[in-house]
Amino acid sequence: MMKYFSVFLMVVSMLFLLMGCTATSTGNPTAKDILKEDKEADIIKVGSLIYTKNNNPVTESAYERPNLYKIGDIKKQTTRELFFQDFYASQLPKGTEVFSTEEYSHGRTPYVLIVESSDEYFEYHALIEG
Predict the structure, then answer these.
(1) CA triplet 109, 126, 53: central angle to 5 degrees?
(2) pLDDT 10s digits, 56-90
(3) Is the Cα torsion angle 49, 53, 59, 65 positive or negative in sign?
(4) Pairing mode, if any, of strands 76-77 and 88-89?
(5) How many CB atoms lie under 10 A from the CB of residue 52?
(6) What is each CA distance from 123 to 62, 85, 88, in whole angstroms?
(7) Beta carbons within 8 Å of 95's beta carbon, 6+ residues apart
(8) Which of 25, 26, 65, 69 is buried deepest, with most CB atoms within 10 A?
(9) What is the pTM of this model?
(10) Which residues contact 120 (CB under 8 A, 6 or more apart)?
(11) What burial class does residue 99 get, using C-beta atoms within 10 Å of its C-beta: 0-12 exposed, 13-18 middle, 19+ buried?
């Protein structure tokens, strides 16, 4: 009887140890995470980050063209959750120019992007976990 109890305690201890050692980090949200929740979400992917639209247009004077750095163009408009790649957007049309207030280099993605649409400027903010 004592042998079974010892084995039971060892098994339970191992289960607690294994459960405690599993990684629970969620990381930054992906396009799949966002579009699964809301198919109408207005997002852009640049680098490893997903950006979501701030619906309040920004006045042109807040972002003067000479102070903006063009970092790319939207390559494809899609709401497919899988294979959502760099410079893909869920709502913006292909060819839309994407800007930043700071220089862009791969691996050093800005936290705010600026897009001009219908003669208005919109900010897209990075979704960062943590």
Answers:
(1) 125
(2) 777 666 666 677 889 999 999 999 888 899 999 99
(3) positive
(4) parallel
(5) 18
(6) 11, 20, 16
(7) 73, 74
(8) 69
(9) 0.74
(10) 57, 58
(11) buried
Q: DSSP labels for the chain?
A: -HHHHHHHHHHHHHHHHHHHHS-----S--HHHHHHH-TT--EEEETTEEEEE-SSPBPGGGS-GGG-EEEEE--EE---STT--TTEESSSPTT-EEEESS--BTTB--SEEEEEETTEEEEEEE----
Looking at residue 14, its amino acid is: M
Q: Are 104 and 127 in contact (CB under 8 A)?
A: no
Q: How far apart are CA 113 and CA 91, in angstroms?
A: 15
For strands 112-117 and 88-89, give the pairing.
unpaired
pLDDT range class, residue 13, cuts 50, 70, 90: low
Q: What is the CA radius of gyration of the chain?
A: 22
